[in-house]
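W.,

You were right to be curious about this one. When I first looked at the sequence I had no strong expectations either way, so I just let the prediction run and decided to look at it fresh. Below is the sequence, 88 residues in total, followed by the output.
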Amino acid sequence: MIVHTLFSDSPDTLSQVVAALLPGDVVLLAGDGCYQNARAKQVTPDADLFMLIEDARVRGVNDATARLISDTEWVTLTAESQQVMSWF
């Protein structure tokens, strides 16, 4: 499993993430990537979608379709993955 951590609010960057997804990969929205919440769920319906609670709160993203996780859960998720890819 690869954790694709999306920090960008650019639709082009999200498209690159989608193109790189393999079965079993997950997408984590962090930082300004939280603004991609609704669109990310539409274009990645088969991937598990996570979003950092604190980043969503700071940005006023209240309509989370992603599973909200804490920083501690983020560490666990990355520790259990084979690879982490960060997208800016």
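Here's what jumped out at me. The first helix runs from residue 11 to 20. And, maybe more interesting for your project: The beta strands are 2-6, 26-29, 48-52, 67-69, 83-87.

Coffee later to discuss?

I.
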